[in-house]
Amino acid sequence: MGFPWAILSCASTVYAAGAGTCCSRLSEELGTKVSFLSQPAYNGTESSYWSLQEAGLKPGCILHPSTPKDVSQAVSIIAATDGCNMAVKGQGHAPGAGFANIDGGVTIDMAGLNTTVLSPDRSVLGVGAGAAWLQVYQYLDPYNVSVAGGRNGLVGVGGLTLGGGISHFSPRVGWACDNVVNFEVVLADGTLANANQNSHSDLYRALKGGANNFGLVTRFDLETFPQGDISVSTFVNNVSKRGPVLSAFTDIISSPKFDVSVSLLVSFLYNSKSKAWTISNSAVYTQPVLHPPVFDQLAAVPSISNTSRITSVASLADEAPTSPLNWLFATAAFKPSAEFMLETFEILNNILYSFNPQGGVVWDIAFEPLPSVMLSHAAKTGGNVLGLQSDEGNSYIMLISALWLDSASNTAVEEVSREVLSVIESRAKAEGLLRKFQYINYAAPYQAPLASYGAENFEFLKRVSRKYDPQAFFQHRVPGGFKLVEQSQQELGVSNEEN
Ligand SMILES: Cc1cc2nc3c(=O)[nH]c(=O)nc-3n(C[C@H](O)[C@H](O)[C@H](O)COP(=O)(O)OP(=O)(O)OC[C@H]3O[C@@H](n4cnc5c(N)ncnc54)[C@H](O)[C@@H]3O)c2cc1C
Ligand SMILES: *[C@@H]1O[C@H](CO)[C@@H](O)[C@H](O)[C@H]1NC(C)=O
Ligand SMILES: *[C@@H]1O[C@H](CO)[C@@H](O)[C@H](O)[C@H]1NC(C)=O
Ligand SMILES: *[C@@H]1O[C@H](CO)[C@@H](O)[C@H](O)[C@H]1NC(C)=O
Ligand SMILES: *[C@@H]1O[C@H](CO)[C@@H](O)[C@H](O)[C@H]1NC(C)=O
Ligand SMILES: *[C@@H]1O[C@H](CO)[C@@H](O)[C@H](O)[C@H]1NC(C)=O
């Protein structure tokens, strides 16, 4: 896909007139639920984005729906108004410009749709699509049940679940999306539909990984499971210990008997100003067991600091809000190899060591397990569209994040991230270790995660889009995020790669 900021700066001039008409029609119909520049509600949404790239866009107006009916009314009005484009925001944690905000169009901030209702038998949680995960865990913890959701509490239910969703519980129950038993969703024609295994089952599957390409989800019904307190250890290591850390990581993630209570994240952190690398590990075990033996090898690596505690799901997810910075995510997936991970570190160090853009940049390169047992759970709700098979063996996902203060450095950081990623990918490909999968919630705007699901899933998504959205409203009039239309062009490049 093209650079979203380039597309958007066009859109703001071309569509400004359309947005004006449509904002006034929206405010006639929905009154004070529509806010305008300099009003407190508008300000509230603008200051709730996680990245500066998102917070910097200025919609013509912002809709704050409080019911699914508000959403369906708004979509009908917007779709009927030529030249009026829109964006959908959950908790605003996608870093890329335009993913959940728009210059000159209408932003629909779903955050007010945040009700949580547990079924009487406690087996299903109905949660408003605009909720944050912390609210979900705080609600569920007292009932001794939980759901597969985000690890950081401020992340949104909406974006995380529609893109897949990696949870501490994923090895045990699958991607967050595999645990959705029903989506309540507003379609392009404004109708409110339910998508589940019995009704609109094609749309149901497409929403499990298809992101914002099919509708505005207003409620997710999530399967729960019994859950008590969990164990969390953190280890910080000198980067000179990368050999033993990566061996421990690889041993844990490549085990054919992957322990489904493991939720592990190993990160390399680099600060361009101090030119210093450190290793930070988060070793969560989703049972109340302090020092579980599965982490012994990792815990034995001499650390700069280490902590261990038993805590509740909600308190682990509880984090302090941060003020927005410039952020970039980029991702790839690999077959396990400690040697290749060491080579990855050398590539990172070679390219990043002397790159110190104006204002500095902090890199966080994280590695997380993608075990085959996690993929085996997709079948219980009829499958998702991610294109991952449990018989392909254990893998791991790499998330490259960059954060920096000075927006003047945006292009430079993005270019360096592309270079790093392309060198790592081509080395992995040469060694037969590259998986084709690009996790959409970690993908950079220049990547093609939808095409990475494989030709069959990609064609399926396009068919479902034509069926439920014949005018391609969500392709052309909701331009933010990864679009089926844009990724068609990149399809060939991706599908040539192996697994
Ligand atoms: C600090 C941090 C921690 C993270 N931790 C995890 C983690 O543990 N596991 C993981 O898998 N990912 C994680 N992520 C990635 C996260 O899944 C994505 O950033 C996700 O897009 C965030 O969802 P959101 O609703 O907050 O974001 P938004 O930016 O509001 O939305 C993201 C995308 O989803 C679309 N969208 C949102 N809600 C709806 C809806 N109701 N209907 C239709 N489309 C919608 C938006 O249009 C947008 O394109 C993390 C990200 C951050 C910044
Ligand atoms: C909006 O936020 C800005 C700072 O982000 C502040 O200066 C301004 O006063 C706010 N306006 C309103 C109406 O709240
Ligand atoms: C739910 O959303 C409303 C409206 O935005 C907000 O006032 C309220 O604090 C939210 N509830 C929780 C528990 O976050
Ligand atoms: C949850 O578990 C705790 C501790 O085992 C118990 O005291 C409490 O009664 C349980 N709560 C419910 C609602 O079952
Ligand atoms: C890391 O280890 C090296 C020796 O291998 C040492 O020179 C350096 O001071 C250590 N750094 C920290 C932060 O402990
Ligand atoms: C963990 O930290 C304690 C002190 O808090 C220290 O005594 C111990 O050596 C550390 N473990 C390792 C493996 O470094």
UniProtKB/TrEMBL annotation:
Alphabetical list of PROSITE patterns matching this protein: FAD_PCMH, OX2_COVAL_FAD
GO molecular function: FAD binding; oxidoreductase activity
Stated name of the protein: FAD-binding domain-containing protein
Pfam families, per database record: FAD_binding_4
FAD-binding PCMH-type domain: residues covered: 55-227
InterPro entries to which the protein is assigned, alphabetical: FAD-bd_PCMH (IPR016166), FAD-bd_PCMH-like_sf (IPR036318), FAD-bd_PCMH_sub2 (IPR016169), FAD-linked_Oxidoreductase (IPR050416), Oxid_FAD_bind_N (IPR006094), Oxy_OxRdtase_FAD_BS (IPR006093)
Keyword annotations of the record: FAD, Flavoprotein, Oxidoreductase, Signal
Highest taxon, organism lineage: Eukaryota
Annotated signal sequence range: 1-16
Family membership noted in the UniProt record: Belongs to the oxygen-dependent FAD-linked oxidoreductase family.
